[in-house]
Write a structure and sequence with these properties.
By secondary structure, the chain is of the alpha/beta class. It has four helices and nine strands. It starts with a strand and ends in an 8-residue tail after the last helix. Bound molecules: inosinic acid and magnesium ion (MG). The site of inosinic acid (IMP) has 15 residues, from strand 5, helix 3 and strand 8.
């Protein structure tokens, strides 16, 4: 394990097995349709790349990048779009692909925003879910792993842009973000 980790939460093998199951479930649910996967940058990039390879119906992708307003360490709920989708989603079956749902504020905003663009359907697929942290309601259709309230990194998830390329998901040692020599937005 990386020396900044406290423990491995999900091994490469555990992630792969669950992502495969999720892809198979999506393939059944969307039989006869096309899925437009909307990945939320940057965290969901690795999950999306792996997931679509287990989807057996035509899958298209687009990406959106968002940020919370303000410099507070807690998400305020006000979300700003940094990079919007390339194309219209009107009439498409849209699947939002997210790395982790924490307070739910980001997804709550995005769902309302994307709904107003009149997709044929809109569902949410997340790899990780921290249900104990929820502040805004989010209806999750595909949920990889519910996890406890601990700060995790790897497999796309970062701390200050670090650790995204780890192939597993580990709990970050709190000493790393308690050093105070970095800006923390968690
Ligand atoms: P929220 O649901 O609006 O609070 O925000 C979800 C976003 O917060 C995710 O897309 C991540 O970027 C970030 N986040 C929340 N918890 C973690 C974590 O444990 N590790 C890394 N990023 C996290
Ligand atoms: Mg993120």
């Amino acid at each position: 394990m990386h020396p900044d980790g406290k423990s491995i939460l999900l091994s490469e093998e555990a992630i792969r097995a669950r992502v495969r199951e999720m892809g198979e479930e999506l393939s059944r649910d969307y039989e006869g349709k096309e899925i437009l996967c909307v990945g939320i940058l940057k965290g969901a990039m690795i999950f999306l790349a792996d997931l679509v390879r287990y989807i057996r119906v035509p899958a298209f992708f687009d990406f959106i990048a968002v940020t919370s307003y303000g410099a507070s360490s807690e998400s305020s709920g006000a979300v700003r779009i940094l990079k919007d989708l390339d194309r219209s989603i009107q009439g498409r079956h849209v699947l939002i692909v997210e790395d982790i749902i924490d307070s739910g504020l980001t997804l709550n905003y995005l769902v309302e925003n994307l709904k107003s663009r009149e997709p044929a359907s809109l569902k949410i697929c997340t790899l990780l879910d921290k249900p104990s942290r929820r502040k805004a309601p989010v209806e999750i259709n595909y949920n990889g792993f519910p996890i406890p309230d601990e700060f995790v990194v790897g497999y796309g998830l970062d701390y200050n842009e670090h650790y995204r390329n780890l192939p597993y998901i580990m709990v970050l040692n709190p000493a790393v973000y308690q050093k105070g020599d970095k800006h923390v937005f968690i």
